[in-house]
Amino acid sequence: MQLLDRQQALAIAPLWRLGFRPFFLAGALFALLAVALWAAALHGLTRPALSAGLLAWHRHEMPFGFGLAIIAGFLLTAVQNWTGRPGLSGRPLIALFGLWLAARLAWFVPMPTAVLIALQLAFIGLFIAQMARQLIAARQRNNYPILLVLSLLALCQALTLAGLALGDDNLQRRGALAALWLIGVLLSLIGGRVIPFFTQRGLGRVEPFAAHPWLDRLLLVCGMLVAALFASGHNLQPHPGLAAPSIVLSALHGLRLWRWHLRGIWRVPLLWSLHMAYAWLLLASLGMSAWHLGWLAHPSLASHALAVGAMGGLILAMMARVSLGHTGRALQPPKAMAWAFGQLNLGALIRVSAGSGWLWLAALCWSLAFALFAWYYAPMLCRARVDGHPG
C-alpha cells in the first residue's frame, strides 16, 4: 500500500504535489505585478480596466489575494506534518488554485458584482473547509485557533465585499484593515512556533527556547481585539482609550523578540530576515498606539508597517526557508536572497517614513524582492525534490 501511494504521488507533476509549490510561486509573482501596477496607476502611467475601483482592488488584494495565497500554501503544507495525513495534491489542489487564480483575474473582466464576490468568497470558504476537515479529523485542538482566525478572516472579506457591493467606502476600510490585523495575528501564531525553532536549529543551539503559553494566548486575544475594533469602526478614529490593546501588543512582541534574540542570527540571512520581519509587528503596534495618543498624524503608516514590513517580510522569509526544506535542499538560500530581504525592508522603511513622492521607490524595492524570489525559486518549486521524496 505504501509503495502504491508513493507511485501515485510521483505520478503527479511536481508543481501540484503540495500546496506550497503553486501558491508560493503564484503569490510571489502576483505580489510583484500587483504592486507594480498599483504604483504605475498612482503615478498616472496606466489606467487598469477594473470591474471595481482601483483603491477597492488594492485594499482587497493585498490581504485576500496575496496574503491569503501564501497563508494557504503554508498551511496546506504544514497540516500534513501536524496531522500525519496526506496534504492536498493533484487535481483537488489544481482546482483550489484555479479558483484563487480566477478570483484574481475576475477584477479585470466585466462581470456582475455578485459573481465577483462569489468567486472571492468561494476560495477562502473551500480553503477553510479543507483545513477544518484535516484538523478536526485528527483532533488537533491546539491548532483550532488557526481555524478561528481563518474564519474571522473570511467574515472580514465578506464585510469588505459588502462595502464594495453597497458602494460604502467606510465598510470596505473596516473589513480590509480588520483582515490585515488578523493576518498579523496569524503571523504571530505561526511565527511564535517557527522563529524560535528555526533560530535554535539554524545556530545549532541544543537547548530549546522556553515555551510561554500565556504569552501566546495574550497575543491572540489582543490581536483579535485590535482587529475587532477595526471591524466595528472604532479604530478608524483616534481615541486615547483605544491605545491600550496596541500598547499591550507592542510589549508582548518586544518580549518575544528579546527572548529569541541571539547574536548569531545576524550571520544567517534565513534568520535575520525572520527577526526583522517580526520586529515590524512591534513597530506596527507602536504606530497604532502613537496614532491613538495623538503622536502620529495618520494610521496608514502603522497599517503599511504591518502590510509591507511584517506581512511582506515574514512571507518572503518563510517562503525562502520552507521552499528549501520541502524540496529536500540544504537550508542555504541563493546569495541574492539576502539582497531580496534587504530590499523588502528598505521598501517598508521608505513606505512608512518618506512622503508620497517616494511611493514608486518603495514599490520598486518590494517588486524586486519578490522578483528575486520568483527567479531563483521557480525551478525548485516546479521540479521534484532532490532527495527523491514524493512531496
From TrEMBL:
Pfam name, any one: NnrS
Keyword terms: Membrane, Transmembrane, Transmembrane helix
Transmembrane segments: 20-42, 62-79, 91-109, 115-132, 144-166, 178-198, 218-236, 242-258, 270-293, 305-324, 358-378
Database matches in InterPro entries: NnrS
Coiled coil: none
Protein name per Swiss-Prot or TrEMBL: NnrS family protein
